[in-house]
Amino acid sequence: MSTVSLRHRPGTHLRGEETRRRILSTALEMFAEQGYDATSTRLLAERAGVNLPAIPYYFGSKEGLYRAVVAHCLEQSETFLAPVTDKALSLLAQKDPAPEALINALCEIFERFVVLVSCGEQVEARRLLWARAELERTPVLQMLQEGGKRQIFEPCAALVGRLFGRAPDDPATILRTLALFGQATIFCHTGVQEVLGEASIDEVRIADVRALVREQTEAILRAALAGKAAASKTRNAKK
Hints:
Elements: H1 2-34, H2 41-48, H3 54-59, H4 62-92, H5 99-118, H6 123-136, H7 141-164, H8 171-185, H9 192-196, H10 203-238
């Protein structure tokens, strides 16, 4: 009897994981389409092809499911960004990294972020979910903001701060980082395709965007660093 029981456990576990993933995927689409308040768990269960009790069984409640959807999205984005953010953190751990290396690390984060918000599985739903959370001030808004800040903004601010000899939380560093990052975050908006006159952003267009974001970031930072060096030279000459 025990042997039979052991043989069935892996299949039961896999079916449970598949059910959980199906609910999460369906919930992402419905929360994005209809918003948190308007999403019916009954209809959600029907669309996911599961019994209604499966939602409280796996997630506890509607809000628990909503938070699980957001946590899953944040986990996916963190995994996708890890190669470039880990590289940036390793660079920042060095005593005196070269300015060009810091600029390149920042550009790599921006470029990878553009890919993250432009393509991939359920990308439209993820963008719309984020937009709804901001507009509707849903229960997960703080969770989203803290996740984005930790995953993306803080490494970028640390790179910018090191470039200009300021702390990552210095107001000047934060403003400069926000201005630079705005080049990439614009592609989070669902109206980008309409402005471009395209049904979707394909690989060629993404490559163009990545190249442009890098070009502009490099130009802005090099010019700012040159201006800082010139101002320092002038001050020293007056002493």
